[in-house]
Amino acid sequence: MFADCWSGSSLGLKLKGLGAQADDVDIFLRAVKRRVSVPAHDNVIGEADTAAQVRVLLAGTTCSYQRKEDGTRSIVSFQHPGDFCDLHRYIMPDVKSVIGVQALTDCTVAVIGYRDMDKLLSRPTLASALWRASMLEALIYRERLSSMGGGTALKRVAHLLCEQLARQEAVGIHAPHLPFSQIDVADAAGLSIVHVNRTIQTLRGLNVLSKASRAIEVVDRKQLAKIAEFDGRYLSMPALALKWAVQIEDTRN
């Protein structure tokens, strides 16, 4: 029943976009034994979490974060429906992680045990899709570090917003609203809340963001991308990787 409900969902679209076959998606979804509802602002995964399970976001928006010495939060990435919340913990279970995952909105999370993940990796095309997922995460981290290393606050915030819109659209979410607060943007862009507030007001003054809504609503996508000098090719890695066909040779005969 779960697989039937979610095969056409953002998770299904994400897996297919990473190269998983239709039967791979069904098998992956059937490995999900539990779904968990997490209210906004609660932790999906604590910073010291050691549970032997992988969490996949089905609905809502989360962020991966790290606490600084002064107690403030640094957001290292956002997750949208279809994204893995902690694939890195499964890939490198012996490396101590200090990254937590927080729900920014009410969320639904799928839980898969490590043993079931091990079984899933016996399917070459599904294993390749999960490898691509981890590579895509690495590219997003790299781009975040690069954008924070220079550029104006206006460009940094615009780039952050462009990336999230593109990632949402990749899993079938075509909405101009982004479910982030200005505090979330500040923690992700490495800026003060005052600086981000001024930047948001500038974008509203340029008619890039809606003036009628207190939420972050993009009304001029092209202008936003121009300000950000946004080149989303790094987000197209799954499509490029699909050209690397996996050839399975039958050696049973």
Question: What attributes characterize this protein structure?
Answer:
253 residues; alpha+beta; Jelly Rolls; 4-stranded antiparallel beta sheet; 3-stranded antiparallel beta sheet; 11 helices; globular; disordered N terminus
Oligomer: single chain
CATH fold-level assignment of one domain: Jelly Rolls
Order of strands side by side in the largest beta sheet? 2-6-4-5
**Measured distance between first and last alpha carbons:** 37 Å
Please identify the top-level CATH class of one domain. Answer: Mainly Beta
Give the number of helices. Answer: 11
Main beta sheet: 4 strands, antiparallel
Nearest-angstrom radius of gyration?
19 Å
Task: Provide an overview of this structure.
This protein has eleven helices and nine strands. The protein is of the alpha+beta class and 253 residues long. It has a domain of 120 residues: Jelly Rolls (Sandwich). The chain is globular, with a radius of gyration of 19 Å. The relative contact order is 0.15.
Please describe the topology of this protein.
Blueprint: H1 2-6, H2 10-17, H3 22-30, E1 34-38, E2 43-45, E3 53-59, E4 62-67, E5 73-79, H4 87-91, E6 100-103, E7 107-113, H5 114-120, H6 124-148, H7 153-170, E8 177-178, H8 182-189, H9 193-205, E9 216-217, H10 221-228, H11 237-241
Antiparallel strand pairs: 1-7, 2-6, 3-7, 4-5, 4-6, 8-9
Summarize the structure.
With 253 residues, this protein is α+β, with helices and mostly antiparallel strands. The protein contains eleven helices and nine strands.
